[in-house]
Amino acid sequence: MRVGVPAEVKSDEYRVALTPAGALELVRRGHEVWVQAGAGTGASYPDDAYARVGANVGDAAACWGCDLVLKVKEPQPSEFGFLRDDQILFTYLHLAANAGVAAALCRAGTTALAYETVEDAAGRLPLLAPMSEVAGRLAVQAGARYLERPAGGRGVLLGGVAGVPPGNVVIIGAGIVGRNAAVVATGMQAHVTVLDTNVERMRDLELMLGGRVTFQYSTRLAIEELIVTADLLVGAVLLPGARAPRLVTREMIGTMRRGSVVVDVAVDQGGCIETARPTTHSDPVYEVDGVVHYCVANMPGAVPVTSTPALANATLPYVLRLADEGLTAALRADTGLRPGVNVRDGKIANAAVAAALAS
């Protein structure tokens, strides 16, 4: 099979979908690999690193012209012309918040598999997990930075100092993003509260963090009461394939202190905070009612040297199966890959995505 790896064109995206190590595995199995010139530069993989393992380095057309196209982010409008009906696209899609991309894929007849809806045998999301880890950790790192007064924040040091209380961090969601955000926030010695409706998940996190976090069952009233004194609010809510539920309203944001910071990690799925809208690393923040909002939709793109191999390590077994066996056989052999199919034969194939787009 011919496997193509175009360079990412989304604003401030420095990751690449395949490492040279992954390219070598494909080449050794007899597949033809095409990598766009410069695609790996942002992640510290020069073109010659791919060439040395037998991959071809070419232009965008050569890479998009392959049977299996690997990307990191959803196709941008400038790439819609490359979409075809005899092509498999494997990438993060987040179609619930990208109706235009969904329409373009359907028009082209492209078979599109989304990393974020592939499941493992336990129903977990193995291809979303590594980037959720990165995003969760970055959320607190970014929040701490924008809490600084020169960056527009209140001027709060999350960890406080002797005789001065620490900052308050409220995290909505105790999944992978929330767990990693809590780990970093507690490491900074902040006062951390995590809300979720899954008691077992909170119990597991409590055992992991040894009582350093306050846990509370997530209700509208609990959120309303907690964010009034929050210095940093992290939205970490996920419904696989669907739009994130809006748990924080504009009215609630108005009760927060001026200069406090909101980080909505769910913004690529529509956001769980009503005032959230996607931003970029070049222009990451804006204010609503005096509250700083950091809503970068591709947060792990800021640390490509870490996030690229983390993503590629997770996706490579699926890439090899698709290349070796073809789509039909791969779907038959791996039932967890089936929910990854978001678009096929010009139609939305994932029920959660279809419901979100129809609403």
Could you please describe the fold and organization of this structure?
The protein is an alpha/beta fold and 359 residues long. The chain folds into two domains: 2-125 and 304-358, Rossmann fold (3-Layer(aba) Sandwich), CATH 3.40.50.720; 129-302, 3-Layer(aba) Sandwich (Rossmann fold). It is 33% helix and 17% strand. The protein has eleven helices and 15 strands. It has helices at 20-28, 47-51, 60-64, 99-108, 129-146, 176-187, 199-209, 220-227, 250-253, 304-333, 351-358, and strands at residues 2-5, 32-36, 56-58, 68-70, 88-91, 111-114, 168-172, 191-196, 213-217, 232-235, 261-264, 285-288, 291-294, 341-344, 347-348. The strands form two sheets. Strands 3-2-1-4-5-6-14-15 form an eight-stranded mixed sheet, sandwiched between helices. Strand 1, helix 1 (20-28) and strand 2 (32-36) form a beta-alpha-beta unit. Helix 5 (129-146) crosses helix 6.
Entry summary:
The chain is an alpha/beta fold and 359 residues long.
Name the helix and strand elements from N-terminus to C-terminus, one letter apiece: EHEHEHEEHEHEHEHEHEHEEEHEEH
The total tally of domains equals 2
User: Looking across the biggest beta sheet, what order are the strands in?
Assistant: 3-2-1-4-5-6-14-15
Taking Cα atoms only, what radius of gyration do you get, to the nearest Å?
21 Å
Counting DSSP H or I runs of 4 or more residues, the number of helices is 11
| Class from secondary-structure proportions | alpha/beta
| First-residue to last-residue Cα separation | 38 Å
The overall average pLDDT, rounded, is 96
Largest sheet: 8 strands, mixed
* Gross morphology: globular
Give the strand tally: 15
